[in-house]
Write a structure and sequence with these properties.
This protein is of the alpha+beta class. It folds into 2 domains: about 170 residues, Thiolase/Chalcone synthase (Peroxisomal Thiolase, Chain A, domain 1, 3-Layer(aba) Sandwich); about 120 residues, Thiolase/Chalcone synthase (Peroxisomal Thiolase, Chain A, domain 1, 3-Layer(aba) Sandwich). Helix content is about 35%, strand content about 25%. Strand 4, helix 4 and strand 5 form a beta-alpha-beta unit. Helix 3 packs parallel to helix 4. The radius of gyration is 18 Å and the shape is globular. The mean pLDDT is about 95.
Amino acid sequence: MGTAPVFLHAPRYVLGETEEPYTAVRDLEARAARFAIPVAPATWGWGSFHRTGRAPAELAVASGNETLDAAGVSRDEVDALIVCTSAFPDFVDDHAGYLGAVLDGLGLTRTSFACGMTLNRCNNLLAALHLARSLVAGGGHRWVLVVTADRIADESLRLEKFALFSDGAASCLVGAEERGADAFALLASAAAQDHAAIRSGDRIDARLAVAVNEELEVVAGIPREKITAVLPANLVRPLVLMKERQAGFAAHQVRLGDVERLGHCFAADPVINLADLSASGEAVAGGLYLLASSVPGARHGVLLRRAS
């Protein structure tokens, strides 16, 4: 891979149009009893969740257009698209329609390369950023739009032991130059897997996060204690904080503010958290931000520095 600089631009997101409190979860008490956990919203960080009647492709288009409009990059310049989701259409014959709907909705008529990212569960978006960074750094593509979208299809699964799910999408543009005010230098990305745990594990292993941190430090020369903020998946509060502390981060580095406000939007969470941090004005020039997500058997990390 080449050494060309890479930048992440205009992180944006959209949520399901209907916001409801956690008490609206179907069969809440029975669901909690199934997991042998108390109905204790303050402990878990249950707050609100967002539900949509739109299809994932519609959510992807809505978020992607917000990114493109904010980035200061014309649609004719975007030469690659990576679409992430946990559930692409079941039948191959429907894949072209899905991709076509996203391309048409975004107005990407000159995009020469498009692919789908899945199999990484709630790490899909960070896996796509790992790929996008390589495409740009290697010189093969100049502007890569990355977008993820998911929704709960079965309301009985809205609450899991590890998270309260929201429907939504998130996106950003990865490019070879800094353009616009909302840009971050993409310093490094890394991933680690435990092949046995991917198939049979049900627990997040902090050792994989440690391995990712070590690789990021080797590539970028930045130790974990220098990172301004860790922007993780919005799983239940005690789980996220415990695992990030085990990975070597201090409690003040881990941002958990969106757990109660939004819930867990599948793979979108780290970019949602980045977009909120940027919009709040807290993402200071030169600040170092780690987008991080773990699932049983895998960890992905993307290290950013605020460019302006």
